[in-house]
Every structure is written in structure tokens, then in C-alpha cells.
Amino acid sequence: MPTISWANYVSTAESFFLPFVIPESFIMSIKIAIVDDHPKARLHHTEILSNMGLEVVMTAWNGKDFLDQLSLSTTLPDVCLLDVNMPVMNGYQTAETLSSQWKQIRILGYSVDNDEHTRTTMFKSGAHGFVEKFGNPEELRKEILRIAALDIC
User: 117: which residues sit within 8 A by CB, 6+ positions away?
Assistant: First the structure.
């Protein structure tokens, strides 16, 4: 039996927010899509998530662009970081479509509008979580881990 190194596991402080310890190998395997109409926000979040060891496999500038990419892709993301306010197809509409056609993709809504109505509407549209758009990167990481691990709870 192989020896388990605790260095390969999420910290105990982080496990306070999660009901179990998540192996580092699971964290490193999480594939992310970022859907945001602002190029600087996409770049910002791509850099943050990449520095955390998460792989950004897809970016899109609105929901329609994202759904078009999904229909052609052979690699699906595990988690979609989805902006609420976008042209052509907003986050609510995109979340509804993802929830019905790509149920295996976890949706993490995010917006600068961090009010109760925005969060509630996003959850009703199918989101599994919600964070502030330019909030604490560690909170973003914890929420990604939480919703990515929903299937293994």
C-alpha cells in the first residue's frame, strides 16, 4: 500500500469549508471554463486560476459563444465560471441551458452585482455557487473546489 503524504492534501483550514479532505491530484485535474464579456476579466481570472494549479480549458465572451464552443469540443470543463451580465446571451440564460443540456458541468456564477436578487436568480437558473467577480481569490478557489467535489461527496 502506498504511503500517503499529507502535503498532497488540501489544508485543514480549507477542510473547514469542505466536508472532507480533497487530494491535490483531484484539484489539479479540475478543468475550468471562463465566460465573461470583458477580456481583462477573462485574462485576470485565467491567471489567478492557473496560478492555483487549475486548468482553464475554455474561454468565451458570452453564453452563446460558450455553448457553441461546447458543442464542438471534445474536452468539457468541470466548472464554468459564468458572468451574469453579458450581451447576446447572459449568465442566467446560459446557466439554464447548461443545467438542461450539460448537467455534468458545475456552474459558478459571478458578478460585480453581488446582491441578493442576482445571487438568487443565478441559483434559480441552475448555478451551484456564486462569488463576487473581483473578490478574494482564496474564496474563489474554495467555491470552485466545493462545487467540483459535489459528485464525490
Answer: none
Cα–Cα distance, 121 to 31 (Å, whole number): 25
For the chain, how many residues are written? 153
Read off the pLDDT of residues 44-97 as tens digits, 9 standing for 90 and up: 999 999 998 899 999 999 999 999 999 999 999 999 999 999 999 999 999 999
- Which CA distances in Å does 127 have to 6, 20, 51, 92, 131? 32, 22, 24, 9, 11
Q: Are 147 and 79 in contact (CB under 8 A)?
A: yes
pTM flag (> 0.90): no
Which grid coordinates are listed for 76?
468539457
What lies within 8 Å, CB to CB, of 28 at 6+ separation is 53, 54, 55
| Cα–chain center distance at 12 | 22
User: How far, in Å, CA of 81 to CA of 101, rounded?
Assistant: 17
